[in-house]
Specification:
This protein is 45% helix and 11% strand. It has helices spanning 14-24, 40-52, 56-77, 81-102, 108-115, 117-132, 156-169, 193-205, 238-246, 257-260, 274-277, 317-329, and strands spanning 2-6, 30-34, 137-139, 175-179, 182-183, 187-188, 209-213, 235-237, 266-269, 290-293. 43% of the residues are buried. The chain has an eight-stranded mixed β-sheet with strand order 3-4-2-1-7-9-10-8, with helices on both faces. By secondary structure, it is an alpha/beta fold. Strand 5 and strand 6 (187-188) form a beta hairpin. The protein starts with a strand and ends with a helix.
Amino acid sequence: MKVLKFGGTSVGSPQRMKEVSALINDGKQKIVVLSAMSGTTNSLVEIASYLKKNNREAANVCINRLRHIYKEHVGNLHAKPEFAERTMQFLLGTFDNLLSMVSRDYTPELEKEILAQGELMSTNMVIAYLQEQGIKATLIPALDYMMIDENGEPDLHYIKEHLKDILKKQPGYEIYLTQGFITREIDNLQRGGSDYTACLIGAAVGAEEIQIWTDIDGMHNNDPRIVEHTTPVRQLNFEEAAELAYFGAKILHPTCIQPAMPACPCVCSTPWTPKHRERLSTTRCAVARLRLLQRRTTSLPSKSFPHVCSSPRASCARCLKSLKRTTRASTW
């Protein structure tokens, strides 16, 4: 079984949702992890920020603006009225819930509950569309199995046992859709946590491969935001990829690689460039893809890589050595 993760840009519009649905509908069993639609998490952060400032009126304006956007999406996503109605009712319930949250006093727990709504909406929209197309797909809520401990670290044993139990109870589906980022007790894996979710799931189920689908085609040989005509690096081992993510490469969440290291190769792909667009019917449309190959031995610690040093540029000899090697390779 493979694990595929699609970020917010990949599901950022009804058309993108349809393209992703076509891409994953290849008859092979897989787990698909989705982020919130692009822009949604930023809006939810804004709502929570207004609530923290006790500006309930501004929070309500943001909610109503977001609700209007989603209502338009439903009409563009579904062709059958019964599925459009089903999705609309779920979304209206979500926005009513958000409005009720605004009447409560701000707490960090309430903010996490607000932020969780983006992934809940995107996955319910996509699962309804998949089922409308007659695809054997089911939704497995991350709130049922994704757990973090008192230190905010993933509880790998809990995740593995509960996820396997859920999959065992729901056999025969081609696509198991789930949320990235969010966890039980309405918590989250922080920004970029959907990559982390995918790698945790991949490790838990012993996936043959983890695919991170994004709007760029891999880690490049320099920072494409600064240098023109950069090219993707086709192969990196896990340790190199973790270091590059830690020192600023944006394609992967810095902590996400660690869970996959013992067993699962990881591929970063994009379907959105013109040369890839005609190949959406396959799960391997990346002409220039990044494969993070498993290394038999590694010097990475057992904890998440970003916790190695709080000040990597001036802390320890190992980080300085890593920084020199990263700079010398000019890889982003």
